[in-house]
Specification:
Length: about 575
């Protein structure tokens, strides 16, 4: 009977195979793999405060869910319309979200309230947000059922904007957007869409703001704004569909900031283009010239006996520090700039004063455009006797070089370029001299490869639905660079524009309805009730080399409607 060894069972229990089987059976937990949970949490109505109820007088709302949930971004995601004086406490208890109104707050009589949770409530494991989670109640006998829907887009780019507060007011004064919270509001989603629901019948003022502060009030300066041209009348028979353009409000023109960058250069920064600013030094010994770049004036100055001095910019007095001319000239060298002067667009950007390394540059040259060379200082004179030009290694003399009258750090080189040729331009020492009498000390070489005819293409663009008697600006963009610009008036509703010798690229056409006829796009002014100038864009089919594209674009029905109002 004892045919097995005594320790057989002990050895069997200790065998690696059996131990691994026992360990696998003993492990408990969720199986690995399987489909990912994509279902959002849902409200269990039977265990929650009744939604869409009337004669509501509760101070506490409980929403029970079918799974464990978490709260996130409650401060920005939970939106209550009409807004309360004090935000209620929103907490979690088990699978419930609890909303408790402050004892200091009193609900308005005969009013429908909406609590929109946005994406604040998510499931515990996968962070799936509860879908369209809203709690609606009325303190009166019925629920208001009207709505205002629409979209908010950027006034310049027409791109939809997310998380913009769209607001309805029962106060029609312009100052209400700065002083009071709205009666109703909602925030836009990723597609720029908004929906203000359960609104009562009435007439409302409509505004939208990029509410960075979260206080539902427009700060008037830093936050963008948009508005409807007329009051919104909501009745039982009609809801509303709105399209609002958001813009940075036209600032009051003023001197925003000034800096003495170094000896010889003062920067005056304005809130808008300083076209009408007159500069006048109060010291007769000062020699100066003025350069305008976007919203900035650069005042380049020189004086034989440096001292502190003052300049007048219209009615503003700017004090300029006493700085060493000798120290400046020790470190100053006239050299080619790393980018054209016109590229300086930022309000905080200073003039490029540091010299770029003197190297040979090879660039592509358009056959119908002048070549531009930019320097790090205002230029005073050009000595073409120190300029050499070769065309395919042959000396070439039929060119001219002139200082740019509007961008005085630039020299424009005019040549009747030949397709496909290579031009080598050499500026010997002393070829140019700047405002301070400093010539270029290094030799500058630029190799210009002119496009061949087969590398270029053409575009025939028809612009339709124009308003007769209106000025337009049509810009042809290659990426963010304006390659071509046409300003035109039209007597009819259609205009055909022909572009030749275009570099092969994917272009975008941008059309501005230039209402004030200043040749550029202008933003809106909320207090003047002026909308931004209408602007329309269209991405064109890519232009291939040695090809011609036929294209059309619409100015848009909105342009015609606004013009006739």
């Amino acid at each position: 009977m004892n045919s097995f060894p005594r320790n057989f069972f002990f050895r069997l229990l200790c065998s690696p195979v059996l131990l691994s089987l026992l360990f696998a059976c003993a492990r408990q937990g969720s199986p690995t793999g399987g489909p990912k949970d994509t279902d959002p949490p849902e409200v269990v109505a039977e265990a929650s405060t009744r939604n869409f109820s009337t004669r509501f007088s509760e101070r506490r709302i409980e929403l029970a869910f079918n799974e464990w949930v978490v709260l996130s971004d409650v401060g920005t995601q939970v939106v209550i319309s009409p807004p309360l004086k004090k935000r209620p406490d929103i907490t979690l208890k088990g699978k419930k979200v609890i909303v408790e109104f402050s004892k200091e707050d009193t609900l308005r009589p005969n009013t429908t309230y909406t609590i929109n949770f946005g994406t604040a409530v998510k499931d515990f494991h996968e962070n799936n947000p509860a879908k369209d989670l809203r709690f609606v109640f009325s303190t009166g006998d019925f629920l208001d059922s009207l709505s205002a829907n629409g979209i908010v887009v950027d006034a310049f780019t027409s791109e939809p904007l997310e998380n913009i507060s769209v607001m309805l007011y029962d106060d029609f004064t312009d100052s209400v957007v700065r002083k009071e919270k709205p009666y109703y509001f909602a925030r836009t989603d990723k597609s720029g869409q908004f929906s203000i629901q359960n609104v009562k019948e009435g007439v409302y003022k409509v505004a939208a703001i990029d509410d960075s502060s979260g206080d539902l009030k427009w700060d008037g300066q830093n936050e963008r704004i948009g508005f409807a041209d007329s009051l919104l009348a909501l009745t039982d028979s009609a809801n509303a569909s709105l399209s609002i353009k958001l813009f940075k409000n036209q600032p009051t023109f003023r001197l925003f900031d000034n800096k003495t960058l170094r000896f010889g250069l003062v920067q005056l920064i304005y809130t808008d283009s300083p076209d009408a600013v007159a500069i006048r030094p109060e010291t007769p010994d000062v020699r100066y010239t003025v350069e305008k770049v976007k919203d900035t004036l650069f005042v380049w100055y020189d004086m034989s006996a440096p001292a502190a001095w003052q300049l007048m910019a219209n009615d503003d007095t700017v004090r300029v520090r006493n700085l060493s001319r000798e120290d400046f000239l020790k470190n100053h060298a006239l050299a080619e700039a790393s980018a054209p002067a016109a590229a300086s667009t930022s309000r905080r950007q200073t003039a490029p004063t540091a010299p770029a390394p003197s190297v040979t540059k090879t660039v592509s040259q358009h056959p119908t455009k002048q070549a531009t060379i930019s320097f790090n200082s205002i230029l005073a004179s050009v000595d073409t006797a120190q300029w050499l030009m070769l065309i395919d290694s042959t000396p070439f003399f039929d060119f001219s070089a002139q200082l740019d009258s509007t961008l005085p750090r630039n020299i424009n080189v005019q040549v009747a370029w030949e397709f496909g040729k290579t031009y080598t331009l050499t500026l010997l020492p002393g070829a140019v001299t700047d405002f301070y009498g400093v010539p270029n000390a290094d030799t500058l070489v630029r190799i210009l490869n002119v496009y061949t005819e087969k590398q270029l293409g053409g575009l025939n663009l028809t612009v339709e639905n124009l308003i007769p008697g209106t000025q337009y600006v049509l810009q042809l963009l290659n990426g963010t660079v304006v390659e071509e610009e046409r300003v035109f008036d039209t007597e009819g509703t259609e205009k055909k524009l022909i572009f030749t010798n275009l570099v092969a690229a994917a272009y975008t056409a941008r059309l501005i309805e230039d209402r004030n006829r200043n040749g550029r796009w202008d933003t809106g002014d909320y207090f003047a009730r002026r909308q931004p100038e209408p602007i329309f864009t269209k991405k064109l089919d890519p232009l291939r080399a040695n090809w011609e594209v036929e294209a059309s674009m619409q100015a848009g029905e909105e342009t015609r409607r606004n013009k006739t109002e």
